[in-house]
Design goal:
Layout (H helix, E strand, L loop, with lengths): L7 E2 L10 E3 L2 E3 L9 H17 L3 H7 L8 E8 L10 H15 L7 E8 L4 H13 L5 E3 L4 H5 L2 H6 L4 E4 L15 E3 L4 H15 L5 E6 L2 H14 L3 H4 E6 L7 H8 L5 E5 L3 H12 L5 E3 L7 H8 L8 E4 L13 H13 L8 H19 L6 H8 L28 E7 L4 E9 L4
Parallel strand pairs: 4-5, 4-6, 6-7, 7-8, 9-10, 9-11, 11-12
Antiparallel strand pairs: 1-5, 2-3, 13-14, 14-15
């Protein structure tokens, strides 16, 4: 398998190389044909070290824990370094740079982090193949920040069946917080269901008699927007809301929006993804629908949504946010943003410091650092998961003031608070107070 289809990197290496760099050593690139000579040498050395470890109790305990030695913690991830959403691969690259910085500062509990990134091209079968490689060949301690609902759906049962932590996924679906079905899995960002709750709560604050129209994608993510609205409106949902779905294969959402306009709704929640965000904004403007239009944070990109929809047509559109935007001039003098941009300049200079995906990756890596520090040197999978489930009012300077991370064994929704923002024709302007959704 060549580097175009499977890229393996770790902290200290550039994605795309056919080798992976670890602190103080270089090991061979794993191919479908098996281990390279360097890799075999590494395994032989590891076997010898394991024998010697029997004479050193602390070292023996470290090596009895998968992915952990006296000097290293191996973490694995899959992401899209190629394929239709390869731009999102920068999240993990930023994290690799962050872990490299930590290693330069001494690591965690005297151990360096070896962050192994494998490309899955956003193809679920490939995700399963690459995840099995990380678990069964690389023997990582846990999986971290894996991208996408489809890819993660392909591996969630496999990882939970083996009691392997599956942490802080880059997903928006609410199902990832199902701690009963998947106790070893946890997402990070607020779910679409929580975002929908926040949209409805705000609309009702402005007008308790609001009439809602809901456009939603006919999949788990889209249905989360429907569920969130139903949870807030309760028994009044049928009298206060009309919902229509679309398929991701539909060429447009024109007919749905025309039908929803005819209901007389004064609030439109577009539970959409990708190009459908721009389509919905543009079409609402074209048909002259004067409505409070709310779109997910996932489609609030100026480049991907607002510009294609039309910056003037988008005026007044509302979305949500929970992090500081490094491209927003209002944060230019913020100490956390300055620190983040200095990090980017030194440790990830090829990355765009104004790209929110990089800021997101940096932030989640910081939370992962906190979890590992809470382990107090005990890096068993069980203790790592216990500490993931023990984040109490954790503040992160990349989050908006007032938003905190909270988890427990029965709360796998780390973030349930957001603030709203409105497009003014030039920028997204935040307004109002922090609004909380429900993780129940």
């Amino acid at each position: 398998m060549n580097a175009k289809t499977t890229t393996k990197t770790s902290t200290g290496s550039e994605t795309g190389r056919a080798t992976r760099q670890t602190t103080g050593q270089t090991t061979g690139y794993t191919t479908d044909q098996g281990f390279s000579g360097d890799r075999r040498l590494l395994l032989s050395s590891a076997a010898a070290a394991a024998a010697g470890a029997l004479l050193v109790p602390g070292l023996a305990n470290a090596q009895a824990t998968p992915g952990v030695t006296a000097s290293e913690i191996r973490i694995g991830t899959t992401t899209s370094l190629s394929g239709p959403v390869s731009a999102l691969g920068t999240i993990n690259r930023a994290q690799a740079a962050y872990f490299k910085m930590l290693n330069e500062q001494g690591g965690i509990a005297g151990r360096k982090i070896n962050y192994i990134i494998l490309d899955d091209g956003f193809a679920p079968p490939k995700t399963l193949e690459q995840t099995r490689r990380l678990v069964e060949q690389d023997e990582v301690a846990f999986l971290f920040s894996q991208l996408g609902t489809g890819p993660n759906s392909a591996i969630v049962k496999y990882l939970n069946g083996l009691n392997i932590p599956h942490l802080f996924l880059s997903v928006n679906g609410d199902k990832w917080g199902d701690y009963k079905s998947y106790p070893w899995t946890i997402p990070f960002a607020p779910s679409a269901r929580i975002e929908s709750q926040i949209f409805v709560k705000y609309a009702l604050q402005q007008n308790p008699k609001s009439k809602f129209a809901i456009l939603y994608q006919n999949d788990d993510l889209g249905r989360d927007f429907l569920t969130g609205a139903k949870e807030v409106l309760g028994a009044q949902f049928d009298s206060m809301a009309t919902a229509l779905s679309y398929e991701v294969t539909d060429p447009t959402v024109d007919s749905q929006l025309i039908t929803l306009k005819a209901t007389g709704a004064d609030v439109l929640i577009s539970g959409v993804t990708g190009k459908f965000g721009a389509m919905a904004i543009r079409r609402v403007s074209e048909i002259g629908w004067k409505v409070m239009h709310m779109v997910p944070s996932g489609v609030a990109s100026v480049t991907s949504t607002i510009v294609p929809a039309g910056v003037e047509r988008s005026i007044g559109v509302i979305s949500s946010v929970y992090t500081k935007d490094p491209s927003d001039p209002s944060w230019a003098e913020d100490p956390a943003i300055k620190t983040y941009k200095a990090f980017m300049a030194k440790h990830y200079p090829e990355g765009n410091p104004n790209e929110s995906y990089n800021a997101y990756g940096y932030m989640v890596a910081q939370v992962m650092q906190r979890v590992l520090e809470q382990c107090n040197g005990n890096f068993t999978r069980a203790n790592i998961m216990a500490q993931v489930n023990n984040l109490k009012n954790l503040e992160n300077q990349m989050l908006l003031p007032g938003i905190k991370v909270n988890t427990s064994p029965t709360n796998h929704h780390p973030l349930t608070q957001m603030q709203l923002m409105r497009w003014d024709g030039k920028l997204w302007q935040r307004f109002g107070n922090i609004i909380s959704g429900s993780n129940i």
